[in-house]
Amino acid sequence: MAVQNKNASPNSTIPPDVKDLLLAEYQALSEEKLKRAELQHQLLSFALVAFGALLAAGLQAKSAPIILVYPFLAMFLSVAWTYNEHRVRQIGAFIKYRIEARIGNELGWEHFRTKLTSGLLGSREFLAARGIFIGSGLIAMLMGALTGPITKFGISEIILFVLAALSVILTTVILRRTKIRIKELKELKERDSHMDEDGGRKGLESADVTTIRDETIKYEKQFAKNGYTGEHLGLSILHIEGSTPVVLSAPHAVKHYRRDRSDPEDADIYTGALAIQLASLTKASALINAHTSKEDPNDDADGEYKRQLRDLVTQKQARFVLDFHGLAQKQPMQIAVGTGGKRENLLGRTDLLDVLRNTLKNAGFEIAEDAPGFAASGPNTISSFTRRELGIPALQIEVHKDYRDPRNKPHEYAKLLYALKKSVDEIAETLKKECTSK
Ligand SMILES: [Zn+2]
């Protein structure tokens, strides 16, 4: 039932065979990238040769149609060029995010990174391609019009001329779309460098927020399906294995049945996407209830979710569980943490609560502790279960709807995500230090 985390920590040691596999993949992709870049150069060369040949032939035969065929050809060549450009960029992003992110510092990350960004096809090549395809097309139209001359064009020549004009316009559109795609990739890279610098404390630019919003909505889709009962053919519980001693939990990512009630309780929307993103950003493990079953993991004494939580905590030797929920719109609190009522679920680790409180406070959040109804004090809450049955500290955190509405309030969501990333990072850091000092 396990879904392996695709974003293992760059610092974690990955097994040698996995590393070999990644390196082989890197090699194959690098080769493909190079071949495609070569092909792009050939396409450009071919366009220029064809342009020269058709122009010469047309002028010699004093035939406008021969010249006017060129823009049409240029359009097809630009489609092929753009396709390859797209693939080259995709491969670049894949190498960076899927391979280098896993192999990490051990294999000269910076070296690869520089190679990537100053690759064969920078924006100068892109401009050159635009200039060649569009410019030569326009010249062909002009030469065609002069050769005719245009005043003596018959009906077939007029049709050809209009088609040539349309081809040039289409070529412009085709080459423009690639530029936007490249811009998207750049935004991803920028966001990444923010995260690198100081754990996400740097101000969020609109480009980052847009990227986060789109990513969040994409992740949430699987839970939102079928009226928020989740993807029926998918895993009922999503399980992400990280490399820190922290486990994130989102038991209410989809609608759930509390006891024998006939109608399900609403989902704590976007807590599922939040757990996935936080796991990816912090390398924590995560458990997410991904489609509605008969169980309410935060209320039933036992069930599949709790069994899997036990397995995950044992397997990862986790030492802290952070359980995510949502506060409804009508609630006055921004963030409500539940410790069990008298901090009993923390098992004396009030320092972990302090870390969470401080980082969230620094990010501008107001935090309520053990507000009536939100203390997670029931015997079967995830955090009570974790403390009692698994013997490690746990905390419930409820987030107001305003911070779980990336579609309409992307800045609020991004602010929450970055603040929580910092909290979880610091908690993991605190726990790791104890591990090594013991
Ligand atoms: Zn809940």
What key attributes describe this structure?
binds zinc ion, alpha/beta, disordered N terminus, Aminopeptidase, single chain, 7-stranded mixed β-sheet, 12 helices
SSE layout and pairing:
Blueprint (H helix, E strand, L loop, with lengths): L15 H45 L3 H5 L1 H34 L5 H9 L5 H25 L7 H44 L7 H23 L8 E4 L5 E5 L20 H12 L2 E5 L14 H13 L3 E8 L7 E4 L11 H13 L4 E3 L12 H9 L3 E7 L9 H28 L1
Helix pairs in contact: 1-3, 1-5, 3-4, 3-5, 3-6, 5-6, 7-8, 7-12, 8-12, 9-11, 10-12
Bound molecules: zinc ion.
What is this entry, summarized?
The chain has helices at about 15-60, 65-70, 70-105, 110-115, 125-145, 155-200, 205-230, 270-280, 305-315, 350-360, 380-390, 410-435; strands at about 235-240, 245-250, 285-290, 320-325, 335-340, 365-370, 395-400. The protein is an alpha/beta fold and about 450 residues long.
Description:
This protein is an alpha/beta fold and 438 residues long. The protein has 2 domains: 14-194; 204-437, Zn-dependent exopeptidases (Aminopeptidase, 3-Layer(aba) Sandwich), CATH 3.40.630.40. The protein is 59% helix and 8% strand. The protein contains 12 helices and 7 strands. The protein has a 7-stranded mixed sheet with strand order 1-3-2-4-7-5-6, sandwiched between helices. α8 links the parallel β2 and β3 (285-289). α3 (70-103) packs parallel to α6 (155-198). The longest helix has 45 residues, at 16-60. The protein is elongated, with a radius of gyration of 29 Å. The structure holds zinc ion (ZN). Zinc ion binds next to β4. The site of zinc ion has 5 residues, from β4.
